[in-house]
Each structure stands twice: as C-alpha cells, then as structure tokens.
Amino acid sequence: MHPAAEHSPLGKSSEYIATYSPELLFPIPRTAKWAELGVTAQTLPWQGVDYWNCFELSWLLPSGKPVVAIGEFAIPADSPNIIESKSFKLYLNSLNQTVFASPGELQACLEKDLSAAAGKPVAVQVRTLAEVQAQGVVALPGQCIDALEVAISNYTQPQPELLQCNPDRVVEETLHSHLLKSNCPVTGQPDWGSVVVEYKGRALEPASLLTYLISFRQHADFHEQCVERIYLDLKNLLQPEHLTVYARYVRRGGLDINPYRSTHAISPQNQRLVRQ
C-alpha cells in the first residue's frame, strides 16, 4: 500500500457532507510509486494526462433548483500528486447542496480546488447530459487480442518476462485488450479496464502481450501506476520510435479514471467505451 493512502478516507466509513468542503480532497504524492519504477519527477520517460469522468455531479441554482451534469477532469501525468478517489467522490458530494449561479462558476471552483490538490493546473469541463449522450460510445482502435489462446496460472504480480518481440522486424500497429484487471491497493476491490498499445518499434508478439496483461489480475496498485508500469515494460522491450499506452477503466463510485502515457505530446479525445 502507498504509505500516504493509509491516512486517506479510502476503505473507511465516511460521513456524507453535502455542502462545499474542499478540505475533503486527499492528495497522494506520485513520487513513491515513481521510485518503484526507477523514475523521478525529473526523469519521467512519458507525457500524458489522467482523465477522470464524474457521472454524479450536482449542485443548486440560486432558486434552490438542483442541476445534474457530467464532469470531465484532465490531470497532468507529471503533476506532483494524484487525488485519492474516495476523497474526490466525497468532495464532489459536498457540492450537492451548494449554490452556484452558473456552470462557469462551478467550473472555476473545481479548477481551483483540484489544481491545488494535484499540484498542477487541472482542466475541467462541465458537460450537459445531452452533450454526452450525443457523443455516444466508441470502439477501441486497432486489433483486439482477447480471442488469442494463452495459458497462465500466476496472477500475483505483473510479469514483464512474458513479453516477447521480434527484434529484427519493426512494425507500426495498435493492439488492445479488455482483459485488464487489478485490485485497489487499499480496499482490495477489483478495478476493471481496457488497454490500448499504440507503437512503432520491434514487433510485439500479441499473445505475449495478452498473457502479460492478464498477469496483473491480482496485482494491487492504483490505475495510474498500472499504466505506467505497462508503458515502461513495453518501452524497455520494444525500443520504440513512439509508444502510447492508455487504459479506460470502469467507473466505481460514479468516477472513472483513464490514464494516458506517451513518448510524445498527445491530445487524446476522452471518449467513453461500452463498459463506461
């Protein structure tokens, strides 16, 4: 478990506070998990963003009438802190009985509070239900590898040694899988996700990628660190000209978390999958 997470509200009984309480946000420094991967804030081998989507966003108009909307939060991948997910949920709940004159006023409040917690500017969009409904759901790009026949019996930790490539052949391709599962390092509850690997480099053996992703099945870590581990293991193996790894996770508590990591600057579209 991340040492800071022990002091977070995650896994503990919490009072429902329905009026604005930014102090509920609980930052967790990324540095400890980065150190496990052998990187520091000064040597990060990726760029990217963590997209959070909130499907339980509500507040009051000055008349007392409630409003519901969907919030989109873009947290820089190099921000000093992640925001512990239950504290994020409790903070958002504290807006339920709070008056905002307009969505713009709410957005400015969210940007201020979340940026202070993350340690870098967080971009916020407050979207209507009609806007999100019109966007619909999308399919992941590239080849789905989930139908490949593989055998595996060890799920306790990621096994990068399972990954295989052809060092004599360079390809540019996109592969994806819906079989990622890991566990919350605090509560032990399952986290379900879909993973995309876009790269140009040594030809990756698709079945080995699938087996490797399945090896996360009982691994305990936060969403962001799982994606960073996948990214680094693939980068070390493929020696790519470019590499992007991202995961779209199934929501829990009204929030889904979607980390993107890449060798280069990206501006990904935050589009929902069928399980989101």
Kindly report the CATH topology of the largest domain.
GTP Cyclohydrolase I, domain 2
- What is the topology, as strand order, of the major beta sheet? 5-3-2-10-9-8-7-6
pLDDT averaged residue by residue: 94
Would you list the SSEs in sequence order as H and E? EHEEEHHEHEEEHHEE
CATH architecture assignment of the largest domain: 2-Layer Sandwich
The CATH class designation of the largest domain is Alpha Beta
Give Rg in angstroms. 19 Å
What does this structure look like?
With 276 residues, the protein is an alpha+beta fold. It has 2 domains: 3-135, GTP Cyclohydrolase I, domain 2 (2-Layer Sandwich); 143-262, GTP cyclohydrolase I, C-terminal domain/NADPH-dependent 7-cyano-7-deazaguanine reductase, N-terminal domain (GTP Cyclohydrolase I, domain 2, 2-Layer Sandwich). Helices cover 23% and strands 32% of the residues. It is built from 6 helices and 10 strands; from the N terminus they run E-H-E-E-E-H-H-E-H-E-E-E-H-H-E-E. The chain has helices at residues 31-36, 85-93, 103-118, 129-135, 206-214, 223-238, and strands at 27-29, 47-60, 66-76, 81-83, 123-127, 143-144, 165-183, 190-204, 242-249, 255-262. Strands 5-3-2-10-9-8-7-6 form an 8-stranded mixed sheet. The mean pLDDT is 94.
Offer a concise description of the structure.
This protein has 6 helices and 10 strands; from the N terminus they run E-H-E-E-E-H-H-E-H-E-E-E-H-H-E-E.
